Here is the input.
Amino acid sequence: MTALLDEHPHLGVERVLRELSVPSSTYYRWRRAEREPCERVRRDAELTGQIKEIHADSGGVYGSPRVHAVLKRVGVHVGRKRVERLMREADIAGISPRRKGFTRRDPKATPAPDLVQRDFTASGPNRLWVTDLTMIATGEGPLWLSAIRDAFSRRVVAWETSARADADLVLSTLEYALASREVEPGQLIHHADHGCQYTSIKLTTRLLRAGVQASMGSVGDLYDNALAENLWMITKTECIRGRVFATRAEANLALFEYIDGFYNSRRIQKRLGYLSPIEFEEKHYADQATAERTNLKPCQPALTS
Here is the structure.
């Protein structure tokens, strides 16, 4: 009604109020509320602006749980339900993943045993790596993405792309991972599916030389490599879906910006206490160093005769 009177002031306030049976006190209370919004309304507007900024900074990825977690991290104390309401009113939402997998098995190859048994937990970094391949469509043809993910921190420790889904692609990913991480021989499990790339002589020989234990899940069961499949769902939902890449180079750049620029360093995860993978690893090493300093005994003074 106030908007109607603003647009047609010639109608006269009192006449309109009389026709609509609205007390003048009610009308002027509405007007006062428009000029001087209450504290809650002002606070909602302020929070909505912060929510929009956080959502945009995530590339439109974050839903209310992660937006709420980021607000908490920066010292903004607000209820989860309020964040949900404000996002709904502002028509802001995260995006949900879709599941899809691909495996081409070599019937002549002997698979490695399943050393994981669907338990994708690890006591520290470089104890369990999961790996897989996925395809990204481009105008030049398929681009194959190979990645290795650390089960402890969910960090993508290495990724490579190629126009071919062959053993060389997964081997180069492994080489990059080994070069960038401190791996103790005999302490790391490398878990994959039954794809022919992972049963190749090239890869199995390299794993043996590095002292890494090979592991494979059962045939045709996404849950046996669920942590790797989860990475593809996240990446395709948050980075690939809705985008058209004219060239493989364009897709490569998008993956670099997402994996190295956002996922590893800034994308917070509930399982990590709403830290990013890199933050989670840094906290682990900092806690480890503190514990070692605490347990360090002071030197005993030398005895003199």
Notes: The first helix runs from residue 2 to 7.
